[in-house]
Structures are given as structure tokens and as C-alpha cells.
Amino acid sequence: MTTERDEFYDDLETRDPAAREAALMDQLSKQVAHAKANSTYFAKFLADVDPAEMNSREALAQLKPIRKSDLAAIQKQEPPLGGLNTVPLDKLSHIFASPGGIYEPGALDQKDYWRYARALWAAGVRPGHVVHNTFSYHLVPAGLFVESGARAIGCPVVPGGVGNTEVQLQLLADLRPDFYIGTPSFLRILMQKGQELGHDLSRLRHGLVGAEALPPSLRQELKDLGVDVLQGYGTADLGSVAYESKAIDGMIIDEGVIVEIVEPGGSEPVAEGEVGEVVVTTLNPIYPLLRFATGDLSAVLPGASPCGRTNMRIRGWLGRADQSTKVRGMFVHPSHIAQIAGRHPEVKKARLIITSVDNTDQMTLKIAAAGGDAGLADAVADTIRDVTKLRGTVELVDEADLPDDGKVIDDARSYE
User: Fold this and answer.
1) What's the burial of 42, exposed, middle or buried (CB within 10 Å: 0-12/13-18/19+)?
2) What is the predicted pLDDT for the residue at 405?
3) In which residue ranges of the chain is CATH 3.30.300.30 found?
4) Which residue has the higher pLDDT, 200 or 348?
5) Mean pLDDT on 45-73
6) Phi-psi bin for 410: left (phi > 0), alpha (psi -120 to 50), beta?
7) Residues 4-314, CATH architecture
8) Helix (H) or strand (E) segment spanning residue 279
9) Strand partners, 393
């Protein structure tokens, strides 16, 4: 017999929405006071703010968002974290690095620091399950997101990390884990290659995936390969933000954040159901980001999830508010395209086209170049790999074929 404790991680998930909102606004006021008193950055940022008055979404919406694209400049003013942290460095366990010169703190003595256990629990992870984690443990916090959440539940973790397909397949066959965690594209590679090589992967029936879009066709493809997957959504800066439940009806907001959907690139919240930029205020006392503008697009879904969790839901990741995007789990920024073109003086204009072929991300850099030939195309392809750490093809085009509209990255994938 399934009990409520089996279904829900804790009582917070089924609170009356009005009680949740009152508690969140009380926590918001306290978080603003804490940040102002203990962070050199927020002492200045909140100089004219009375924390006692920061007790509503309307008041919160008056704060200027802190944009992810601004973090590198903020952190350079007061290395390593820009004074955004509220504890001294000797209280941190890690400092992680993200593309673009952005750094994030970790504090592993804090149980489930990134609050990932809730998403794992909703996906079906329970004490004693073996979790195969293929997120990276190198520089970025993704691997430890999972590790800390799984340990909070009481699960051993296989720290597979990224790549090494055949080694990971041997681990899957030998250790027979209950859950896969990682990108959906790598799970597909593992399952297809495992079938090719004759590995018995029948124990692996469930997964929690992220860092990439999961279109319905890819979800079905993974199901056909034997694995039912749900999605989690988070960032290196914020930790877990939202997650799917088995109802697969939107992504449920984590209990440790306040989420707004605002005008892309702006500050004003949009109407329920309208697509806008995801702005998150985290209640993490160590790194208290207030109105952190992620650059991701989503929209609020009406009502509560059929699974019984009562928090706000969003539609999931619907692309980027700026021209940055994720390809095979890695961010690609407009600055990358400028850097690639800058290494080849012959290139006059460039535009990166992102597509998906059979649920596999593809990058094609269209370049207009003086005297361009196959040798230049090969050299630019090498530069793409050096700069983005991803492979892409190069197509030589006439300058007239690249419009003067300011767009350097065209994400032509469908996220529905």
C-alpha cells in the first residue's frame, strides 16, 4: 500500500497555497535582511531597501533583477564571488566555474545544499536505490547537485561523470543501478550502444534528466528503449528550481525558491500563461541571489499538479530570452561566435544555426568570407571545437545571405 510519505518528500509540498505564500513572503523579508547585513554586494544593492517592507511579490518586483550575464563583471569587482556570498571563504567546500567566467560556491556540509532531493524523490528515488550519475564532477557543480540530493535521501551514487561510454556501460551492467541521472541525449547513446554490445540493462527503468530540452519525441524514444524519464530544471547559481512529477503536467516549483515570469530582458511580471523570462529568488542563506534573471523562457501553468503537489507550475524550458542557448548540455553564447570569427580575419559575418536531427543537436556556422574555401571551413570548424568544446559544421555563404538583424545565434529547434 502506498502512503502519502511514499509519494511526497515532505509536508511542504502539499501546503495550502495561501499558507505557502505567507511563509515564502516571511522568508523573503528575512532573506533580504540577512543579505543586506552579511553580503558586501547586497549591503550596497539594498542600501535604500527596508527588509521589513520586502514582504510581497509586488515589493519584490521593485528590485532590479541581477542578470546572469552581469555576474562575471560583478564578481571581478570583488573576487572570487563579487561579495554576493554571506559567509567567509573558509565556510565553503568548493568554488565552481561556469562558461563566461562565472563562479558559484558550494557548501557540502549543508545537507542537500542544492535542494535536489525533492526532484529525485518526485522521480521515484527512494532510500537504498543505486543512482548512476552522469553529470560532470569537473569544475561545474552538476555532479554534486545529484550526489548531495541522493545522499540526503540515503542512496549510494555511481559517479559516472561525462563520456567514457563503454566504461559506463560496463558499470551499468555490473552494478545494475535503479536510476539514471544526466542528459537525455547521453542516456539514449548508452541504451542504444548497450543493445549493440549485448549488455543487460533491463534493471535501468527510470531516469531524471536535465541540462537539455526534452521534446516529446525524445521522451518517447527513451521509453521505447526501456527508460521512463522525468525532467529537473536548475542552474549552477541557484540549485534546483523546478521538477516534473509522475503526472508529467508541467514542472513544479521547488519549495526553496520564489519564481517570477517577467518580460524578457525586463523586470515587470507578465500575466499567467504568457511566455517570459524566469527570474528566481533563492532562499539559500549562503548565496542569497535576489531576483536572479536566468535568461531562460517559460510560462506559468494554471492550477495545481494532478499529483497532489500544490506549488506553482511552469511549462518547462522554452528557450532563451537572449541569443545564448544550450547545445548538448553546454551553453553557447554570442560572444563565442565573435571569438570564433575574430580568429579568422577572412570571416566578415557569421551566424550559428542550431537544429535537432533525430533528437540530436546539430550546429552549423554559416560564414561569409573573402576568398573562403574548404581549407578555411575546416580551420573554422576546429576553432568552433576549441572555443565551444562542441563539434559543428561550417557552411560558406554569400554575405547577402546573412541578414543585418543583429542575430548571431539562430535556435531553430522546437521545444514543444
Assistant:
1) buried
2) 67
3) 325-411
4) 200
5) 95
6) beta
7) 3-Layer(aba) Sandwich (3.40)
8) strand 276-282
9) 364
Q: Which regions of the chain carry the CATH code 3.40.50.12780? A: 4-314
Could you give the C-alpha distances from 70 to 11, 114, 331, 341, in angstroms and in order?
37, 22, 16, 23
With beta carbons less than 8 A apart as the criterion, state whether 399 and 257 touch: no
pTM: 0.83
Distance of CA 277 to the CA centre of its chain: 14
Return d(Cα 256, Cα 281) in angstroms, integer: 9
Residue 68 to residues 74, 112, 155, 170, 356, Cα–Cα distance (Å): 10, 23, 33, 39, 26
- pLDDT tens per residue, range 354-403: 998 888 899 999 999 887 788 999 999 999 999 998 999 999 998 888 88
Name the burial class of residue 337, with classes exposed (0-12), middle (13-18) and buried (19+) by CB atoms within 10 angstroms of its CB: buried
Span 201-238, pLDDT tens digits = 999 999 999 988 888 889 999 999 999 999 999 999 99
- Residue 3 pLDDT level (bands cut at 50, 70, 90): very low
- Of 149, 133, 119, the residue nearest 246 (C-alpha): 119
Is the pLDDT assigned to residue 288 strictly greater than 70? yes
- Give the CA count within 13 Å in the CB-facing half-sphere of 386: 10
As a whole number of angstroms, the distance between CA 198 and CA 59 comes to 59
Calpha distance 23→405 (Å, rounded): 46
What is the pLDDT confidence band of residue 1, given thresholds at 50, 70 and 90?
A: very low
Residue 43 in this model has a pLDDT that exceeds 90: yes
Distance from the Cα of residue 167 to its chain's centroid: 26
Q: Concatenated DSSP letters for 140-182?
A: SSHHHHHHHHHHHHT--EEE--S--HHHHHHHHHHH--SEEEE
- In 309-414 the beta strands, taken as DSSP E runs, fall at 313-314, 325-327, 330-332, 347-357, 360-369, 393-396, 409-411
3-state secondary structure of 196: helix
What is the C-alpha to C-alpha distance for residues 225 and 223, in angstroms, rounded to an integer?
5
- Structural fold of domain 325-411: GMP Synthetase; Chain A, domain 3 (3.30.300)
Whether the Cβ atoms of residue 210 and residue 183 lie closer than 8 Å to each other: yes
Average pLDDT, the chain: 93
What is the residue type of 383? Answer: T
